[in-house]
Amino acid sequence: GLFRRALMASGWCTIESDPGVFSELITELGVKGVQVHELWSLDKESMAEVGPVHGLIFLFRWRGEKDDRATVTPGPGVFFASQMIPNACATQAILSVLMNCPSISLGEEMTAFKAFTKDFPPDVKGLAISNSDLLRRVHNSFARAEPTVSEERRASKEEDEVYHFISYVPVDGKLYELDGLKAGPICLGDAGPGEAWLDAVTPAIQARIEQYSSREIRFNLMAVTADRRERLLAEQAVIEKERNMTVGKVQARAGKLPSPAELERLAASHPEPPATGEVAVDERTLEQLLIALAHLTARAAKVAADIENEQQRVGQWKIENIRRRHNYAPFIVNFLKARPRDAAERRPRRGGAC
Questions:
Q1: What kind and span of H or E run contains 345?
Q2: How distant is the alpha carbon of residue 79 from its chain centre?
Q3: Is 57:224 a contact under the CB 8 Å cutoff?
Q4: Closest alpha carbon to 95 in 191, 201, 169, 186
Q5: Rounded distance, CA 278 to CA 88, Å?
Q6: Are 164 and 28 in contact (CB under 8 A)?
Q7: Catalytic residue among 37, 54, 164, 295
């Protein structure tokens, strides 16, 4: 509507801290194979469940308190941008992860943007973000319809609650906290190999939470990860390949396959054998082949269910984002206008015969 078009042409709106919003925003920027998941815990099991983690985004209530931690000059491999305009911190935190992970497929637009801003200082990078039509348009497309007053016109008050997004990412062997309101990145130490940086970042996030724990309990932590569907589909392909091979060997030796109930009993009563990469299929006995088939069948069913769950989750995100963007005010106004007329039509008339 008019509100959304006016917002697109002017500033940046606030957007919700929601994994569905962030995931779709990233996709609409042209970035491929990336999702965002909300984290309820920092333990290893929670991290492993969401898959390879590219970076973390932390939301907290901003109080403007002094932070004496030293910042560093960003090296050539670190993308750091100063936040130059209000309300852009959500997209800026997302970019801080995307632009600092070489393994992410950024797509044509974001690859060009990264190359264009590569040698800019942080403040000019921030201006480039605020002046990007693509970034502003995609960001503002997730604005909730506000038919009465916009973010641009609403008077700011001292008691207004202001929330801020920052990022945690490993870059070139170091772990960084990236906050566009600071002069530069804060180096938190060595990142370690692989995903060891997640162990290193946990104390930093816990310390920040404890800093406000006596006065504030509203925090949000999200992980920017590889798209879980792609990982599951790749896992499914590997399982199906080995299962088809095993089925062929069982049929060649036994002539028929066990029933689903028999496979379930075998999987429940025998440990899973090593993959065929460690022990060749031809070297297995018929019993070993049947046990392997039972476990492969169970794994295939579990992965298929996980893929279906992920598809449903992404579908639900899309539905929720459509609802966020829709302006229900005209419907509500017209509905309320129609109610008295409908009531009058239903009111029984006086007199007359039945």
A1: helix 329-346
A2: 20
A3: yes
A4: 169
A5: 51
A6: no
A7: 164
CB neighbour class for 15 (10 Å; exposed up to 12, middle 13-18, buried from 19) = buried
Cβ atoms of 279 and 273 closer than 8 Å: yes
> In Å, what is the CA distance from 154 to each residue of 25, 62, 206, 289?
25, 19, 34, 69
| 89 classed as catalytic | yes
pTM above 0.85, yes or no: no
The pair of three-digit structure tokens given for residue 5, joined into one six-digit string: 């078009």
- Token pair in block for residue 58: 């932390």
Q: Distance from first CA to last CA of the chain, Å, rounded? A: 50
- Within 13 Å and on the Cβ side, how many CA atoms surround 319? 6
Residue with the bigger pLDDT between 205 and 9: it is 205
User: Can you give 317-331 as a three-state secondary structure string?
Assistant: HHHHHHHHHCCCHHH
Position 152 scores a pLDDT of 46
199 vs 43: CA distance, rounded Å: 9
Tokens of 266: 């075998």
- Alpha carbon of 306 to those of 149, 233, 275, 300: distances in Å? 42, 10, 21, 10
Q: What is the pLDDT of residues 185-242, one digit of tens each?
A: 999 999 988 888 998 999 988 888 777 666 666 788 999 999 999 989 999 999 999 9
Q: Which of 82-96, 193-207, 276-290 has the lowest mean pLDDT?
A: 276-290
CA–CA distance, 207 with 344 (Å, rounded to integer): 63
Question: Which residues on adjacent β-strands are paired with residue 53?
Answer: 225
Residue with tokens 């497929």, as numbered in its chain: 105
* From 89, 101, 139, 187, the catalytic residue: 89
Asked if residues 165 and 81 have their Cβ atoms less than 8 Å apart, the reply is no
Query: Which two tokens mark 200?
Result: 């290193």
| Residue 54 a catalytic site member | no
